[in-house]
Write a structure and sequence with these properties.
Helix content is 23%, strand content 20%. It is an alpha+beta fold. The longest helix is centred in the last third of the chain and has 7 residues.
Length: 56
């Protein structure tokens, strides 16, 4: 789903709901992404142009 996070090495065998964290084999949802997660990871802030230019 949109804005989901899948753990490394996970095997996704069905749809994962939007905004969730899923891991394992088979992949299982372990929790939803919270507003606190968004603040911690700076989601919603614009990416500086110098960073965009460096990787484009």
């Amino acid at each position: 789903g949109k804005d989901s996070v899948i753990g490394a090495g996970s095997v996704v065998t069905k749809d994962i709901p939007a905004g969730s964290v899923a891991v394992g084999n088979p992949c299982r949802v372990i929790r939803q992404i919270t507003e606190e997660d968004d603040r911690f990871f700076d989601h919603g802030r614009p990416i500086p142009q110098e960073i965009i230019a460096q990787y484009m």
